[in-house]
Design brief:
By secondary structure, the protein is an alpha/beta fold. The chain contains twelve helices and 18 strands. Bound molecules: zinc ion.
Length: 416
């Protein structure tokens, strides 16, 4: 698969660090970020690159040449006049005969690219967007998708957003079919997001790939400092799903939100104090934050899947406002005892996912390559401790509506 790297931007926001070189040539450690991108993909079998250049593009061309010094093939497309970040793609149509990887040239990442490609093929769409939660969803563009991860809406920063939304942000890495470039867009400057991708929403051809891997742009001096630290410490590399991950599994009711018995109405959902702080600590650590919750209210017919989804979007929105995010949530909708009025018969079963069974943790381990023995389960109930130990995790019990940050601190300290 070919990789197109968009390296034509100007990078004005970061000009305090370097103003006379293109943004992708800014060094992190001893290498330009563009080189780190190429090396990361090369070791995974990607050898053919096309780099689109404009502003100060000769600096990039002089450094990389035809790629042979780096063990890859590199071609260039030089924009004589600015075409917008997607204009060059239309000029490159003849060279893009198969699905291709499209990435921004100023993003530090380490992700399992073959896993991403496999997902794209399985979904069979024209476009797959690499998406992830971030610590500032309230001022980020948001990707909204259905249960099958098919993208239905794309909210830009300035668009009005729903009251509650899932923390799912476009990371600037995509796979595109050349079919997307078949219809010429009659504009002088073509913007990838606005003019090419956004119009595909709701057409059943664009999918989101939710990932926990490390992808960060270095658009501001603060972010630049952070990605530099993360690269040096090895965190960037370790977050790739080609390596085993560690997780802190969290119960929901009584651990994240105030316990109210069966929570049926969205208004009853209230974050406990210290929860955002606790989850931010997990986000800054080497652990994934994964929620695993029994929700028999579904089987009991008291809450629909849609209502539960709305409740979880409220949770993500409230956490997001305080800079915290969860990497994934699993819920068990089942309940074993049948014979009640209003129940959903097919969910009244003895399942493998209802805690204290470890099904949700085992599924997470499979989905995210998690080493359960290096992971924690934190919750307020016997069923949490049961599920955690059955999965082989270390368990920390907190009081109902207790202080989650203490438990997280304990887990993170034990590791050191
Ligand atoms: Zn279940």
């Amino acid at each position: 698969m070919k990789t197109v790297i968009m390296a034509g931007g100007k990078g004005t926001r970061i000009s305090s660090i370097a103003s006379d070189i293109p943004k992708p040539m800014i060094r992190i450690g001893d290498k330009p970020v563009l080189q780190l991108e190429i090396e990361s993909l090369k070791k995974q079998g990607f050898h053919d690159f096309i780099i689109t250049i404009s502003h100060l593009g000769h600096v990039i061309r002089d450094y990389f040449g035809d790629g042979s010094d780096f063990g890859v093939n590199i071609e260039y497309y030089n924009e004589e006049k600015p075409l917008g970040n997607a204009g060059a793609l239309f000029e490159l149509r003849d060279r893009l005969t198969e699905d291709f990887l499209l990435i921004n040239g100023d993003v530090l990442f380490e992700f399992d690219a073959n896993r991403f490609v496999e997902y794209h093929r399985k979904k069979g769409g024209l476009v797959t967007l690499f998406t992830h939660p971030n610590s500032h969803p309230y001022d980020s563009g948001l990707i909204i998708a259905d249960n099958n991860c098919c993208v239905t809406r794309w909210l830009s920063k300035e668009d009005e957003r729903p009251l509650y939304y899932r923390n799912r942000v476009n990371a600037g890495i995509h796979i595109l079919s050349p079919k997307v470039l078949e219809n010429r867009i009659e504009k002088e400057k073509i913007d990838l997001d606005r003019d090419v991708l956004k119009p595909l929403c709701g057409k059943g051809v664009m999918y989101a790939y939710d990932s926990t891997e490390y992808v960060k742009d270095m658009g501001t001096p603060e972010r630049y400092e952070q990605v530099s630290r993360d690269l040096l410490s090895g965190k960037v590399e370790r977050r790739s799903l080609s390596h085993q991950q560690k997780a802190i599994f969290l119960d929901r009711d009584g651990t994240i939100n105030r316990y109210v018995g069966f929570l049926r109405k969205i208004d009853q959902f209230e974050l406990l104090p210290h929860v955002s702080e606790a989850i931010r600590m997990i986000n800054d650590s080497e652990y994934l934050a994964i929620v695993v919750t029994n929700q028999p209210v579904i089987a009991r017919g008291e809450v629909t899947f849609e209502e539960l989804n709305e409740i979880h979007m409220k949770m993500e929105t409230l956490l997001g406002k305080e800079g915290a995010y969860i990497d994934r949530l699993y819920f068990c909708p089942h309940h074993p005892d049948s014979g009640f009025e209003g129940e959903v018969k097919q969910l009244k079963i003895v399942c493998d996912c209802r805690k204290p069974k470890p099904g949700m943790l085992l599924k997470a381990a499979e989905d995210y390559n998690i080493d359960l023995n290096q992971s924690y389960m934190i919750g307020d109930g016997d069923n949490d401790m049961g599920a955690g130990s059955a999965a082989g995790c270390k368990c920390i019990r907190i009081d109902r509506d207790g202080d989650l940050s203490e438990a997280v601190r304990q887990a993170l300290n034990e590791e050191i």
